[in-house]
Specification:
There is one protein chain. The protein has 14 helices and 5 strands. With 324 residues, it is an alpha+beta fold. Strands 4-3-2-1-5 form a 5-stranded antiparallel sheet. The chain starts with a helix and ends with a helix.
Length: 324
């Protein structure tokens, strides 16, 4: 892990140390580093350490056949929270009786990419479902297809590169879950014209944009409130205004406060929020458009408007209109 993800000096020291371990597993680790690492200096260091082991007559370990990959059990994508984070949980069956699953849980965060990774090599399907239920109670979520989950993972790893953010070290330990797939970093391009009928009409529809204030009442967006200290500071100012003023004077003071709040808190996050709206709309459209629609987990709240209550298509259009 240190050789792949550590600071350059630490990585070089780890690679050099591997070259001194007279063990087939050390040579196997160096071979994997050579195949994966991008830094030319570290790659040369790994090749040098591997040559040293071969001169010491260390042989690669005998290959053992991996057990066949189990079928995919469930892939769950949580809804966004107010900081642009969501959980992507992968699971597949292990064992002949299919009573247990291997699970890998990834935290995807806007502006970072893959922010955290943890999992379990074998838990019961019941335990996994209970963990997902707890996630649903906290932030909500939907079941998605494996292929879509892979696209989001590849995009997150690409964001890590673009934002110069390190991939969590634990991902090195859990990425074997995806040994049957290509997970090389790649941006996820949102091709709205292919996915959304009458896209050009939708993006200029003022009525849809007007309805966007209702999104906070939809399950997918109920956690999009800002929890920064600045928000609580402005909330205290709002309480002070309501205690001090009344009538039209109060309305004017609140209007000024909200404009400052939008400028100070949300303007710096504008691009992140816009991108998150696009990702959320994309997932909603996919729930509607695919041959086997995604299964939305049980709703926790009722939407107040008949317009968007239970209609993912309308909800997706409103989110996309707000983003564009």
């Amino acid at each position: 892990v240190l050789a792949v993800l550590g600071e350059p000096q630490i990585a070089e020291a780890a690679i050099s140390y591997l070259g001194k371990i007279k063990n087939p597993l050390a040579l196997a680790a160096l071979s994997e580093i050579i195949a994966e690492i991008q830094d030319a200096t570290l790659k040369q260091a790994a090749e040098k350490s591997a040559r040293r082991l071969r001169l010491m007559e260390v042989q690669p370990p005998r290959l053992t056949e991996n057990p066949p990959d189990g079928e995919i059990y469930k892939i769950i994508l949580s809804f966004f929270d107010g900081a642009g984070s969501r959980i992507l949980a992968f699971s597949r069956y292990v064992g002949a009786d299919q009573s247990h699953v291997e699970s890998v849980n990834l935290m995807l965060k806007s502006g970072i990419g893959l922010a955290d990774c943890y999992g379990s090599k074998s838990i019961s399907g019941v335990e996994f479902d209970e963990a997902i239920e707890a996630l649903r109670e906290e932030v909500g979520g939907s079941e998605i297809r494996y292929e879509y989950g892979l696209l989001l993972l590849k995009d997150a790893l690409w964001q890590n590169q673009e934002n110069a953010q390190p991939v969590p070290p634990t991902f090195v330990l859990w990425k074997s879950f995806f040994r049957d797939a290509d997970i090389s970093p790649e941006p996820y391009i949102l091709r709205w014209a292919e996915l959304v009928p009458n896209f050009e009409v939708l993006r200029s529809d003022p009525d849809l944009l007007e309805e966007s204030y209702e999104l906070h009442e939809c399950d997918e967006f109920t956690n999009w409130f800002d929890q920064s200290p600045e928000t609580y500071h402005y909330a205290e100012q709002l309480e002070a205004l309501m205690d001090r003023y009344h009538g039209r004077r109060l309305e004017r003071e609140i209007d000024r406060l909200l404009k400052r709040y939008a400028r100070d808190v949300f303007e710096p996050q504008r691009e992140r929020i816009r991108r998150d709206l696009e990702y959320a709309a994309d997932c909603l459209f996919r729930q509607v458009a695919l041959d086997r629609p995604f299964v939305a987990l049980e709703s926790r709240h009722e939407s107040p408007k008949d317009l968007i209550k239970g209609d993912k298509t309308v909800e997706a259009k409103i989110a996309l209109a707000a983003a564009l």
